[in-house]
Design goal:
Radius of gyration: 20 Å
Number of domains: 2
Shape: globular
Distance between the termini: 21 Å
Number of helices: 11
CATH superfamily of the largest domain: NAD(P)-binding Rossmann-like Domain
CATH class of the largest domain: Alpha Beta
Strand content: 15-25%
Order of helices and strands: EHHEEEEEHEHEHEHEEEEHEHEHHEHE
Structural class: alpha/beta
Length: 334
């Protein structure tokens, strides 16, 4: 069984580079979303605790099974701990044999951004040049990178209620050739934007984006509304937009569409990726991709990283599963 630590993920990225890794991840996500009906799917299991949530996200097809353990504790940064921490596992479906155990905090950053950009590739105007980020926490730089490999971005406008987070983002972005525009509030940040990502962390109903702030048809990537009782976007804006979600049974409970009632229905992302439905801001007006994060995306990034780790001999072999001459004699290990 391969175990991948943070240093191993860094080694994988160093081997293939940001651009090629995102390209391969986009291809893997596209392939898996096209095979949507081959997967045994369910909404994630969530344990809601004081000031946070702890979740398990399983999925499988005939070949492999994966799960991710992930938390969301918005008050953690006050204790110098991350809001989101994750680990994951990939196993063979036929035998249940574990193939890999991996860190998934970094990988969640990559897969979330890659899925956002994949959705935008289909749904946003092809000539989109201005990206607005509302929230410059752990996900923000990943969002820029993923979009930058699909669109010819000219400007990133950004705002966060935490000035330190804005400074962090600006410092990390200094290595990239892009115009950065720090803004005094969310309203200023979205002015003229073609692509908007909302990614805030408070576990509560809040309104960071309203209909009157939108001055033209735009692609909105709503990331922060991702559990019951946690939304970011004004109900009037949600109601007026064309909406795409990952998995309706999960999004009705966790996404922005939890504001619209249990019977609300809309297009799912796999229908767009497979070409069964065609939507674009250019023809359909403002589109809200109501993203909550789905287990298929974890499956995709885990199987890609497993392939790359084997290819480049990265990771450690660990004996976590017994090896026995007589598989019925577990006691012989003692």
């Amino acid at each position: 069984m391969i175990v991948l630590e943070i240093k191993d993920i860094k080694a994988v990225i160093a081997k293939v580079g940001y651009k090629d890794f995102f390209a391969q991840l986009n291809d893997t996500l596209t392939e898996d979303y096209k095979n949507w009906h081959d997967f045994d799917k369910s909404p994630r299991t969530a344990n809601h605790v004081e000031d946070g949530v702890i979740e398990l996200m399983p999925i499988s097809n005939a070949e492999m099974y994966s799960f991710k353990y992930v938390n969301g504790h918005p008050k953690n940064p006050a204790q110098n701990k991350m809001t989101v921490m994750a680990t994951g596992q990939l196993s063979l479906t036929e035998t249940g044999e574990p193939l890999m155990f991996s860190e998934m905090t970094l990988l969640t950053g990559f897969r979330t951004a890659a899925t956002s950009a994949m959705a935008a590739k289909h749904l946003a105007k092809k000539d989109s040049e201005v990206l607005a980020l509302i929230g410059t926490g752990a996900q923000s730089e990943f969002q820029f990178l993923a979009y930058s490999f699909i669109f010819n971005l000219k400007e990133v406008r950004f705002f966060d209620t935490d000035p330190a987070a804005m400074r962090k983002f600006e410092q990390n972005m200094a290595r990239f050739d892009i115009r950065l525009t720090p803004c005094k509030d969310a309203r200023e940040a979205v002015q003229g934007a073609d692509l908007i990502t909302t990614c805030t962390a408070d576990k509560k109903y809040q309104t960071v984006l309203t209909k009157d702030m939108i001055d033209k048809d735009v692609f909105i990537n709503g990331l922060g509304g991702d559990c019951p009782g946690k939304t970011e976007i004004e109900k009037e804006l949600v109601e007026s937009a064309t909406i795409v979600v990952e998995f309706l049974p999960q999004s009705r409970v966790e996404g922005e569409i939890q504001q619209l009632g249990p019977d609300f229905t809309c297009t799912e992302l796999h229908e767009i990726v497979k070409g069964e439905k065609t939507l674009n801001v250019a023809t359909d007006g403002t589109i809200l991709y109501d993203s909550v994060g789905f287990a298929l995306e974890d499956y995709s990034v885990l199987r890609l990283v497993y392939k790359l780790a084997k290819q480049h001999n990265i990771g450690s072999e660990m004996k976590l599963i017994p090896e026995l001459d007589d598989v019925k004699n577990l006691f012989s290990l003692l």
